[in-house]
Input
Amino acid sequence: MVETLLKVDSLQAWYGESHILHGVGFEIGRGELVTLLGRNGAGKTTTLKSVMGIVEKRSGSVRFEDRETVGHPSDEIARLGIAYCPEERGIFSSLNVEENLLLPPVVKPGGMSLDEIYRLFPNLLERRRSQGTKLSGGEQQMLAIGRILRTGAGLLLLDEPTEGLAPVIVQRIGEIIRQLKSRGFTILLVEQNFHFAATVADRHYVMEDGRVVDMIASADVQHNIGKLQAYLGV
Amino acid sequence: MFELLGIPPQALFGQLLLGLINGAFYAMLSLGLAVIFGMLNVINFTHGAQYMLGAFAAWLMLTELNIPFWAALVLSPLAVALFGILLEKVMLKRIYHLDHLYGFLLTFGLALIIEGLFQWRWGSSGAPYPSPIPGGTNLGFMFLPTYRGFVVVAALVICLVTWYGIERTKFGAYLRAATENPTLVRAFGINVPRLITLTYGLGVGLAALAGVLAAPIQQVSALMGTNLVLVVFAVVVIGGMGSIMGSIVTGFGLGLVEGLTKVFYPPASNTVIFVVMAIVLLVKPAGLFGQTK
Amino acid sequence: MTGQRTVAIVLLAAALVAPWFAYPVFLMTALCFALFACAFNLLLGYVGLMSFGHAMFFGIAGYFYGHVVKAWNMPPELGLLAGVVGAAILGVATGALAIRRQGIYFAMITLAFAQMIYFFCVQAPFTGGEDGLQGIARKPLLGGLIPTKDDRVLYYVVLAIFLFGYGAIYRFIHSPFGQVLKAIRDNEQRAVSLGYEADRYKLLAFVLSAALAGLAGATKAMVLQFATLTDVSAAMSGEVVLMALVGGLGTIIGPVVGAFIIITMQNYLASFGEFVLVIQGTIFVVIVMAFRKGLVGELADWWKSRRLTG
Output
């Protein structure tokens, strides 16, 4: 049995008065790639943010490597070995590409070196002195993924990495994610694009109204395609 | 020698030097204000009082502890920066979540307390501070007091070092990123609250450093900061708080403008910077180097 | 709400008999500053703009009053009018520029303009420079009907002026204009998308605030018979902020309370010299850190919570 890296239980989260998550629970094993699927507003991004510790208020349990993280600030959580790639990418306009890549500090040994990252994303090497936000959407996404690979974090939280990108770039990102998985990274992926998610994931959790309502293993997807389409409203 | 528009060269260059010196202080102080505002979103009204504390600390070190200028140049900013860090941890930190205006009011209140205390204890007339590099050189078209030349050069160096530190170093990258998106930077594992405290300390230290440099030039008095900080606010509005280099250029530039006004039309010299501010507001409200947020 | 009505009636009654219990000059000074603070609060509490240079309106109006009454030998009514109009014109000039920025920039711009006016007043011949305008005679009002030399009589005149100003603010806030301003304050983008020219409304409020501050300043010159640089100084601008803060920004009566408190405090602490600054600064700090709603605001909150639990 694969060792459990992340265990979420009864997670609730609020933004001000809005109660977004009503008791989320799921697990991720080391080396797995697990997705959170669901319609807009289901709470997928909020779940990712709650794991990272950047929601205003949360309760419940989020255990990483069997350490409770609820109640701890986000910089401590990052230093445990979790890295976050936000939906809006969060590329810093006041930094150039290389500065963006080097910004997240190394929190654990075993991360990729700058050279290795440039080999994975050669067009970032070309544009390393450019201002971060002058890159195209696809390049910015690669930058957002690339910069968290250096940190040594074992668990990567990726929020909609293919959103708004051309099919060719989406394919490239899929290849990269598969490569990362084979290098041993554990990945929690939020995706609207189900076809993309199906090509990379081991398991899928479905979310609805701030709760996890179902779990479907990759092998069972074909069998449950109708149910999935109903969940996602396609 | 030659005369320019009926103004003798000594008068012209003398005022230009004065303008350059004023500009140096405008630049250093608006730099500190911009750095603090960028990170903390607080207009540090206490900046003037902290500048005064820098000068006073140097003066007290000299008169009470016989510590010479060159040592005070290092020790005074350190001491005042520590005091600033204390202020940030105890008070400023607690009001970040509120409207900016509360930060303004808090730092205004702190400035009143600090200046009031010093005024009460030492009165408002100033105390002189001996020049560490007395004497000067006759350049022909003007007489250059050595210390004043030093101040201009030192200010330039300080400004450029600050610029380099922010734009070209790793620490500066942390600062710039945290100014843009503190939540994300914290989610990468960087202790952003500590970074913020440190930044405030640096900004305050910069103000105090300017104060030490100012001590031999003007009388060290409890009110030396207030008069200055009001002008620096106008400088900051003119430059816009968008860029470090912008603050530096605007500071020096306005000092020169003020100096020139003193030569050619003295009655306006007090208000020329404010007039420039009015014009800039009409033409480019975000400031010369600012970006509308 | 009858609660508010009762309080208002009690206060009015108190105001009418006050000259028998306290020095009229003290009361008049407090009323002038109360009006000043209310004018300031109109801008901050209801438009969300903090002016840190409001003394320029207060002070310049005082100078205009003094000049008109003393140098031009005109009746006090014209002096007051000159003060109000002068302040309003200054309000239009500075407001049009200051409104272009918001929040903290707005505060700094008003501060800078006030400094400009201060320096102007230092140099301009008609202000008397460092000495200011002194010995402005108390001339009778309404063509001789009201003998203003008597402090008690003048008190009722000043009370009337104050009530007029206060009433103007009250009417303004509760008028359609006031509602639009509130909408702008709460969500400017939305108001603009609904078709309101936010800048025009803000400028109108600014000019009204300036004019009323001018009324307060001119009245003060009438009462105390002088106008000096202190009245246009940054310290004066800071003081009116303090008065509004102490009393409570979100309330109409707050600034009045705040003004009375600060004026009383200044009277008692006059012998302390510069230490008053320290005390004022401490009050600022304490309020920002702990009592953001000011005296009236916190009392109102406490009263509400009592009625809920009681």
Notes: The interface with chain B takes residues 52-54, 73-75, 77-79, 83-84, 86, 90, 92-95, 99, 102-105, 107, 148, 151 of chain A (CB under 8 Å). The mean pLDDT of chain A is 91. Chain A has nine helices and ten strands.
